[in-house]
Each structure stands twice: as C-alpha cells, then as structure tokens.
Specification:
The protein is about 35% helix and about 15% strand. It is an alpha/beta fold. The chain has a domain of about 325 residues: TIM Barrel. The strands form four sheets. The chain has an eight-stranded parallel β-sheet with strand order 1-11-10-9-8-4-3-2. Strands 6-14-15 form a three-stranded mixed β-sheet, with no helix packed on it. Strand 9, helix 11 and strand 10 form a beta-alpha-beta unit. Helix 3 packs across helix 6, helix 4 runs antiparallel to helix 5 and helix 4 packs across helix 6. The two termini are about 20 Å apart.
Length: about 475
C-alpha cells in the first residue's frame, strides 16, 4: 500500500473508486476481497464471527489447506497448534454431525477465546492480502462489541490496510488502533442497558496477554467509519482521540442493517420503515469535512458512480452486486435462486423493522426455504447458542448479564427483558452461518435455515449478466461499474 496512504494523508495518491462492501459473516470472505483488491479496488473482508467461521471451516476439512497455511504464518505457533488440534477434522465432519461449539464472547473473554479471535482475524486478512499489493480492509459492526478489540488486533497483525466500522458510534476506535500499533493495552466502553448510578462498564484487551512476551511493532491502518448522518460524521471527525481517514456514507437502501429513520418510527402500508428528508445526508456538509468519502446504498451502477464523483465523493461502496458474484462466500444455490428471481422479475426485498435482535431495521431477501418464509420461522425452536447479537444488561447486583430478544422467550423474560421485544425477532447469527454453507445441525429438527440480505436495487445484476449468462465474477462487476467513466 502507498506509504502516504499508510500514514492517513492520502493526498498524493489516487484513491480507488470502489469499495467492495463487507457483507454478512464470510459472504465477503478472503477470496472475494483478494479478487477485488488484486484488481486495484478496495477489497473488504467481513469481520463478523470470524472465530466461528474459522472453527467451522476447519471442521469441514479446510479444503485447499488455505487456513492451515495462514495459521502456519501466524506469529504465535502454540496458538495455531491449539486451534488446529481443537477444530480440524481431516476430510471434514460427517454431514449429519453437529459442529463443535466454541465459547460465546462476553465482557470477560477467556485466554483461549482471545487467542482464537486474534488468530481468526489474522487468517482472513492474511489470505486476502496474499501475493498482491492491493488494498484490503476489514469491516466490523460496532454493535458486536464483545469480540471487537482482539479482532482488530488480529487484523492488524496481518497488516490490514483499512479498518471499517459501522452500526454504532465508533468514537473510541482510532485511539484503540493507535494504542495497538504501540502494543499497549486498550479499552472501550461497553454499552450496557439499564445502568444505574452512572456506572461505566468497559471491555479491555492487552496484546501481551496473547503473546506472553514482546508483541511485534505494527503499521497503523486507516480508519473509515460508516455513517448515515452529517451529525455523526462531524462528531467522529472532531471528537475521536485519533485520526479519521475517510468516511463511508450509507443510505437506507443499503443491504444488511440500516440506521433507523430520524425521529419517531413510522411504517408504510407494507410495514417497512419510512425514511424522509431528515434521513438524507447533506453531501456539501460532508465535503466540508475535507476527507475522502464513498457513497453507499443503491450506488451500484456506472451512472451512480459518476453522480457520486460529481458531488465530490471519491467513489462508491457496493455490496449487492458483489454478494452474488462467483467469488463471494454465499452458497451457490442461493446465488442461483436470487439471480433467477431477478431475471424473472420476482425478487423481493423487505426492510424488516423488527427481525434483527439489534433493533436496527434489517433488509431480508425473500428466498424459498429460508427464514424469510414466516412458516419456516414459526417452526424454528428459539435458541441463542452463538450470541454475537446479544445485548449486555445490568443485573440487580450491578454486574453485567447478557440476553438476546431472539432467544427462548421465557429465558429472555427471566433475564429482565420485556416479552414484547421478542416478537418477530429472528436468529441472524445462525441464519448468516447457513448463508455460507455452515448451518448447525439440530438432530431431529434438521439444520438451521438461512436468512439472506441485500440492498434494494437488483437492477445492476441484470446489467452485469447481459442476456445469456447465469453467473458473473467480481471482475465483471468492476468492469461494469467503471465502464462509463474512462477508468
């Protein structure tokens, strides 16, 4: 990566116009990020649940030996050996055998879980950066706080170029990055519901805990927060104790989680959140912050790229087009069904105001045999055994507990939650793992079902495919996006 960019200035370099979105759990995996960054754009791996992804990939036999190659490069051999000994199954586990579990991340991470998180993030970034000089980023959800600090450190050990954080207010992340460069202990405030007496709960991580000796010197990656308002962008630029290097401005039509509408939530006749003028971002105000910025949410076309650049943006972030390309981690059957529905004109995306345990609106793609089907959703036994989207709450004795509105309703209520908050909630954690072909086996109840997401705009898929094809590559997407601007 360009040395000026590494220092965060970026003024003397030509920034890539396309950021490939960091989608789901391993939808934007190392293969997709590698392909995109090798072509001169910013390839991004999803940082969501990488500890689980690594554990399950190893149990599936690690085809191609990619994970074991990356673990061999991990700078703490005893950790690599422990992970392989615990999870690797030569030839892969039998299809009907459940995946072996791993600890759920909470406010006090065990030594082994910290090591797994660091190693898993290292592996994904290492493979994405292998054998090329392109720019690789990693995308985290600030809402998933518990594993965040060791995850960032693992990505930095693999020399990640850009850290992207959305779904929250990541004001502490630049300072975390700067401290980790110096191998210093880091901490961040844990959002805890129901806090009394002004008590502050914190998460912490110390690199020496993992290394047990002297950690290596690291290079500082760039920090790009994902924001949906000028207010948040300005606050981050002015109040972060550390440098913000660029901004991703995401509108309500982007896939995955969306910021709630400003003000009181109103629903349309189709029961989707209604976004209005208050949710539109003042791009002149963003431009006045004098940082490179990329626009996201239905910007997946050459015309929209030109439009973005015309208003001062550096380029665009694109998710949906990349999500269904050949290199993405999404199951081939789901890609085929989504593309066929798009070609038939039967595709449907619903912005569900209540599906996500986070409370954020979440876009759900309707695909037969997935949790988008209400009958399938009703048949599922509510169970929270992965726990990435749990919320922390303060218990009666002042300590931190964890609960999820998508878990068993009696359990949630026994943890102090309101029954109303459980209505319509779906287990995104298990659904996202099913999306990438790693669903948990539930014995007589079969396997966990998928829950797919994408942006509102599918039209670009037809443009990329043309009249006769049924699949396409990341190179096709990039060529399409850059086809009319002379790049």
């Amino acid at each position: 990566m360009d040395s000026d960019m590494a220092q965060g200035s970026g003024e003397s370099m030509k920034w890539p116009q396309i950021i490939q979105g960091g989608m789901g759990a391993a939808v934007s995996d190392w293969r997709l990020a590698h392909a995109v960054s090798s072509q001169g754009q910013i390839g991004v791996v999803s940082g969501t649940a990488l500890d689980l992804v690594l554990a399950r990939r190893l149990q599936m036999g690690d085809p191609g030996e990619h994970l074991r190659r990356a673990l061999a490069a991990f700078p703490i051999p005893r950790v690599s050996k422990d992970i392989i000994d615990r999870f690797f199954i030569a030839g892969g586990k039998p299809a009907g055998q459940p995946f072996k579990g791993k600890p759920i991340a909470g406010h006090n991470l065990s030594q082994r879980l910290q090591e797994l998180l660091v190693a898993a993030n290292f592996v994904e970034v290492f493979l994405a950066k292998e054998n090329h000089g392109g720019i690789v980023g990693i995308n985290y959800l600030h809402k998933i706080q518990a594993p965040l600090l060791p995850s960032i450190y693992g990505a930095m050990l693999a020399d990640v170029d850009v850290i992207i954080v959305g779904a929250g207010v990541p004001v502490e992340i630049p300072k975390v990055i700067d401290n980790l460069v110096r191998s210093e202990p880091v901490e961040m405030k844990l959002y805890v519901r129901g806090v009394t007496n002004g008590q502050v709960h914190k998460l912490s991580f110390t690199p020496e805990t993992v290394f047990q000796d002297h950690p290596p010197a690291l290079r500082r990656p760039l920090f790009f927060p994902i924001v949906s308002s000028v207010t948040l962008a300005g606050m981050l630029v002015k109040k972060c104790k550390g440098q913000v290097d660029g901004l991703i401005i995401e509108g309500p039509k982007a896939g995955g989680h969306n910021a709630p509408p400003r003000g009181r939530m109103e629903l349309s006749s189709e029961h989707e959140p209604v976004y209005g003028p208050r949710d539109m971002v003042d791009l002149d105000a963003i431009k006045s912050l004098e940082l490179p910025f990329w626009l996201a949410g239905t910007y997946g076309s050459p015309e929209k790229l030109a439009e973005a650049c015309a208003v001062g943006a550096t380029g665009i972030q694109v998710g949906t087009l990349f999500a269904f390309c050949e290199e993405s981690g999404l199951c081939q059957d789901f890609k085929y069904d989504a593309i066929k529905n798009c070609q038939d004109g039967t595709h449907h995306v619903f912005t569900d105001p209540i599906a996500s345990p986070t409370g954020f609106p979440f876009k759900v793609l309707s695909i037969s045999g997935t949790l988008s089907d209400n009958d399938e959703y009703e048949k599922r036994s509510r169970k929270c055994d992965l726990g990435y989207l749990r919320e922390a709450y303060e218990q009666a004795d002042g300590t931190v507990g964890w609960r999820c509105p998508a878990e068993d309703q009696e359990t949630y209520v026994s943890h102090g939650g309101n029954l109303e908050e459980t209505i319509g909630r779906k287990c995104l954690c298990n659904g996202l793992m099913a999306n990438i072909g790693m669903p948990q086996v539930r014995g007589e109840n079969g396997v966990e079902l998928a829950l797919l997401t994408c942006g509102d705009d599918f039209s670009g898929i037809l443009d990329v495919l043309g009249p006769s094809r049924t699949s396409y590559t990341s190179a096709d997407v990039i060529d399409f996006l850059l086809s009319r601007n002379g790049s």
